[in-house]
Amino acid sequence: MSSVEPKPRSRKLYVLWAIALTLLLALGLFSWLVVVPVMGVRSALEEASQRRKRQGYTVMPTDLKRKAPTEVAPGTRETTDNPKPSSKPNEKPYKRKNFYDEHGRNTGRTDETDHGRPEDHPNPHHHRRNPATGEWERDPDTGKKIWPGRHPDDPENEPPDDDGPTVPVPSS
């Protein structure tokens, strides 16, 4: 009987297995150290948001950093960003007032700036929002979402020039 000696296995196979197991271990460690905590934070934020909604809040404080909220507590009629930082690098901050209906839904805002574009943004100008749909309304005269002057709900609106009917003064 002749004894057949088995063919020796290549070291390359063992090296490839070692690399594959190391990568698998690294992926597991990444998941444990990064993905699991991120999922936990997201879950905690969602839970906090749901709790705030149950308590009657409709806006998280972090939502106020850039854009005005589309909903506030019912009864809030106006909020002011003074000064509102511009989104353009060379533009100065400006005053912006946001207006809400009795249900706390946004009805529009007044911007006290021309945004560096006086040809199509009068200063001041306003934007109107349909509180039921949340859509911005267009000025029927221009077709743009920009209306000249202050928002109709703005208490700083100038009174009309009309002082009532003119009564002729009799001459003597």
Which descriptors apply to this entry?
single chain; 172 residues; alpha+beta; five-stranded antiparallel sheet
Write a compact overview of the structure shown:
This protein is about 25% helix and about 15% strand.
Chart the SSEs and their pairings.
Elements: H1 11-54, E1 78-84, E2 94-100, E3 106-112, E4 125-128, E5 147-148
Antiparallel strand pairs: 1-2, 2-3, 3-4, 4-5
Explain this structure.
The chain is of the alpha+beta class and 172 residues long. The N and C termini lie far apart (150 Å). The protein is built from one helix and five strands. Strands 1-2-3-4-5 form a five-stranded antiparallel beta sheet, with no helix packed on it. About 4% of the residues have low confidence. It is elongated. The protein folds into two domains: 47 residues; 84 residues, no CATH class. 13% of the residues are buried.
Shape: elongated
Structural class: alpha+beta
Query: What profile does the largest beta sheet have?
Result: 5 strands, antiparallel
Report helical residue fraction. 25-40%
Compute the gyration radius: what is it?
Answer: 32 Å
Q: What average pLDDT do the residues reach?
A: 78
- Give the end-to-end Cα distance, rounded to a whole number of Å: 150 Å
